[in-house]
Design brief:
It contains eight helices and five strands. A five-stranded parallel beta sheet has the order 3-2-1-4-5, sandwiched between helices. Helices cover about 55% and strands about 10% of the residues. The protein has about 150 residues and is an alpha/beta fold. The chain is globular, with a radius of gyration of 14 Å.
Length: about 150
């Protein structure tokens, strides 16, 4: 059973403007991943960082929708000194603060895959993949990989 971590970008995708093909396909991939979580085929690890980022979504309707999706998280990783230390290390190698905290939380929670639609985060993760303890991928690419197994 894969253990996954979806960042806030992923959870926002179903509520983004669906007129672009990429956004629509990524939204469908996120919803398909969540359906596998709902059917207990995959395990979803979230974090206090994820909850904090969701709380900061300015659009109240979108925030409510994202929070509803996030209510399916099966394990929430609390911010601890070890996570903060790892996040600082990740920040030093080029990850933005929230991204570093998400990655450190995913690692601490035993996630095998960290999913994001953030191109900057994906590029940075690819550049320093040897320094990461969790694989980072786009949800559309990952679901395609999983369905081909």
């Amino acid at each position: 059973m894969p253990t996954i971590y979806l960042d806030a970008c992923c959870l926002n995708r179903p509520f983004d403007d669906q007129s672009q093909d990429r956004i629509r396909l990524e939204a469908e991939a996120v919803l398909l991943i969540l359906s596998h979580v709902q059917s207990d085929e995959w395990r979803w690890v979230g974090s206090d960082v994820l909850n904090l980022e969701i709380e900061q979504i300015p659009d109240l309707e979108k925030r409510a929708g994202v929070a509803l999706l996030a209510s399916s998280v099966q394990k929430t990783i609390s911010i601890e000194p070890s996570i903060e230390a790892r996040a600082r290390e990740l920040n030093k190698i080029g990850f933005r603060a929230f991204d570093a905290q998400h990655l450190a939380s995913a690692q601490s929670g035993g996630a095998e895959i960290f999913l994001t639609t953030d191109d900057q985060l994906l590029r940075q993760a690819e550049r320093v993949s040897d320094k990461l303890k969790v694989r980072v991928a786009n949800p559309l690419a990952w679901i395609k990989e999983m369905t081909e197994k």
